[in-house]
User: What shape does this take?
Amino acid sequence: MDERTLADLGEDDLLALIIPVLRSYQTEHAGGRLVVPPGDDAAVSRVGPQADGCAAAPVEVVATTDAMVRDRDWRDAWSSGEDVGAKVVAQNLADVAAMGGRPTGLLVTLVADPATTVEWTLALSRGIGAAAAAHEVDVLGGDLSSGPSGVLMVSVTALGEMDGRAPVLRSGALVGDVVAVCGSLGLAGAGWALLEQGRPDADPEAVARQRRPEPPLADGPSAARAGASAMLDISDGLLRDADRIGRASEVCLDLSETALTPDVERLTPAVGRDLARECVLAGGEEHSLLATFADRDHVPAGFRVIGRVVAGRGVSLDGIRQKPRGWDHFGASPGTAQRT
Amino acid sequence: MDERTLADLGEDDLLALIIPVLRSYQTEHAGGRLVVPPGDDAAVSRVGPQADGCAAAPVEVVATTDAMVRDRDWRDAWSSGEDVGAKVVAQNLADVAAMGGRPTGLLVTLVADPATTVEWTLALSRGIGAAAAAHEVDVLGGDLSSGPSGVLMVSVTALGEMDGRAPVLRSGALVGDVVAVCGSLGLAGAGWALLEQGRPDADPEAVARQRRPEPPLADGPSAARAGASAMLDISDGLLRDADRIGRASEVCLDLSETALTPDVERLTPAVGRDLARECVLAGGEEHSLLATFADRDHVPAGFRVIGRVVAGRGVSLDGIRQKPRGWDHFGASPGTAQRT
Assistant: This one.
């Protein structure tokens, strides 16, 4: 009898147990349909019949799901219902973009204490509706369930299309590639720290980014077209997510401290140099895109080079191996969460 | 300021507020893509480019989502992790079938108290994996989040394909149609009552059906091919769900007490005649298919006629208007839930 609880395992270790169980049931029927199985930012599967005598490529659909839980993923004192709706949509659409996909639809599940106000619920709906519309994404459905006292949980599934592009996995980085990022680093983490410190006015942009991430969604397909060898969105911190590409690709992503200096300097006035550096390296919920490309000439507009791929496994900074710190859903208890 | 809480509104009333908010953000971009908007058992949208000069029909994808919450939708004393996994998959696939769709994939979100055992989590995974494989459905992905103490919540999104069939809505029933059902009535409700009474041995089949529903998934596409004018799966009770078709179609579904007699008699030995009748009329979680067809000749194998469509709005029994009783997620508090 296995007496361990989820608190004894990290999220990644738990997934390493669950995914093989789920895969063990998948029989040959799935062979032709599943292009990218669970384990990456999103899965990709083929839909529709292979039309005989038709030149049309099969349609590849991207699917991913991600939830937010009150007092784990947001605090009512810091985020409105609109903020929560915008954020849960953004983080899901980012996972679609990180495969090189174009988001097209989403579904929402709300599990709520019956004492939740109708007002908050409609604010959440407005946040979801506006964020979806801003990216031409359809709201395809939802589910409402009552939950225990005090519980508020929003889960979103996002769907997208590959439009003929090859999905960009975490596992394709090769030694010699360059590492590049699209979007900001550490802003959301610094915003969290400022809210925690009660000083949101010290950097309103960072706080706004914490409340409502702005993933560079169109740059995901751009990176795929440019031939990105690996990609993900930075949801749990640069080091942790770079480590994920490193381990999946069996290479080491060596980041350059110098290349990250502007990001650290951007945040230093508000939070000080040490915390700014920590936010850049390990701040979660940024949802910027981290990708690898064959060389500098292949890096598309919007991305900037922050390192290179070397032999090894994981992540390093100027050649020094880094422990992949950042956010872990089960490893960190809420009081001690190191989100920054 | 709206001071109402979710407990003040029923699930249907709440959806009637939320859906227009979500729709208000949907702009013309969605026009060509969304075939069936949220509000039915599942949404249907078109994916892929319209291939020029190609005879292939556009691919229509069905999507739906449904969650289960511990101590609301299951009790650990009655249901194993495998049972919960099997049930949450079954009820989602039933929603796909109820549109006339063929389920193809699903995604799972687990929000769990970190004190949840790894053992339970793996049992849940086995239940999900086995139920998916039994219907040739791919597990496309998932998300793990920690939740507050005591909380355990599983949310599933199911995807499917229409294979060229027209989606069967709730709103297409016409006066003169016959009403037919495919699958059992009241078994899951009687199983719940027996578990509640501590007498599961009185009808092991009913208890098994409560733990693991067996929706007649292949009969959804059959009904669509046979030209069903309206369809849904009975998740919240025959009267409540018949009323939903009635209201959506602006007709009245008049059910025949005589036609339901065999269903009542099936359950009478275990739970007595009165409760048996209540289970047949208002028992939830059965996930049998309720559909309307132009006439008896169009009713496909597997379905049996239990009524007819008349002028009016809602549901009646031998001509007597019925209040749509059954399960409501927010209207019923857990202690007083009338699931049977």
About this structure: The radius of gyration of chain B is 20 Å. Chain B touches chain A through 94 residues (CB under 8 Å). The longest strand of chain B covers residues 59-69.
